[in-house]
Design brief:
By secondary structure, the chain is an alpha/beta fold. The chain folds into 2 domains: 73 residues, ATPase, nucleotide binding domain (Nucleotidyltransferase, domain 5, 2-Layer Sandwich), CATH 3.30.420.40; 165 residues, Nucleotidyltransferase, domain 5, CATH 3.30.420. Helix content is 36%, strand content 28%. The strands form 2 sheets. Strands 6-9-8-7-10-11 form a 6-stranded mixed beta sheet, sandwiched between helices.
């Protein structure tokens, strides 16, 4: 199987080219068009495809994939490689489902917590029986900085830069420290809670900011900014 897994997120589109379970290449695009996609399908001799699309209408792209590949529609009715116990499954983001599916590549009778650090910080928990129990969503780094500017009269608009010290001594460094170390404390607190509640738990990191936090965490099993692509490939393979 030569698979293409397409993750259309809030800021960019990620394409993963897989030979069965092996990731051959990752391609990043600002937007996805049939003119960009068709040469990729030909170059890699793609046979199967899947798309996680949270916010765009891609009828032409979908038609191309249906015509050129064995296309798997990905929605809340798609068969998954885990048991889903989320109470409002119709509201569960496809990107979060894909992250949970990615965890099944690592789960061998162990609990897994997937932490994605991007526009939002999301937590996805699967227990040792491959049952998805949900998690949490909170603002990401830039969203926190933007909120501080938007909801106050005098705090400036900042782009994130990693703070040099835990204790800020300017308004800008205090905001950077609050955003970064606030998320780090949240991560550590949730890891501790899941371990106390369910026992030993492995940690996977994903998202564009994952490597910023990986070096501050002691027990991360695996970190990859595009872990969603591995999850989409798992779902695709599970349905073939």
């Amino acid at each position: 199987m030569k698979n293409i897994c397409i993750d259309i997120g809030n800021t960019q589109t990620k394409l993963g080219i897989f030979d069965n379970s092996e990731l051959l290449e990752t391609i990043l695009l600002p937007e996805l068009t049939t003119e960009l996609l068709e040469p990729i399908l030909i170059k890699y001799e793609i046979t199967h495809s899947i798309v996680s699309n949270v916010n765009n209408n891609l009828e032409a792209v979908t038609q191309l994939l249906q015509h050129k590949t064995n296309y798997l529609p990905f929605n809340h009715f798609t068969k998954l490689p885990f048991s889903n116990q989320y109470q409002t499954q119709h509201t569960l983001g496809l990107d979060r489902i894909a992250l949970a599916a990615a965890a099944t590549n690592f789960a061998a009778e162990q609990n897994i917590l997937v932490i994605s650090l991007g526009t939002c910080v999301t937590f996805e928990f699967l227990n040792r029986n491959l049952t998805y129990l949900g998690g949490a969503i909170s603002p990401g780094l830039n969203m926190r900085l933007q909120a501080m500017n938007h909801f106050t009269a005098k705090l400036p608009m900042l782009n994130f830069s990693e703070p040099a010290h835990f204790n800020g001594n300017t308004t800008e460094s205090c905001m950077q420290s609050g955003a970064f170390f606030g998320i780090l404390a949240e991560i550590n607190g949730r890891i501790e809670w899941y371990k106390n509640e369910f026992g030993p738990t492995e940690i996977l990191l994903s998202g564009g900011d994952c490597f910023l936090f990986e070096k501050h965490l002691k027990n991360a099993l695996f970190a990859h900014p595009y872990l969603t692509l591995f999850g989409l490939n798992k779902i695709l393979s599970h349905n073939v």
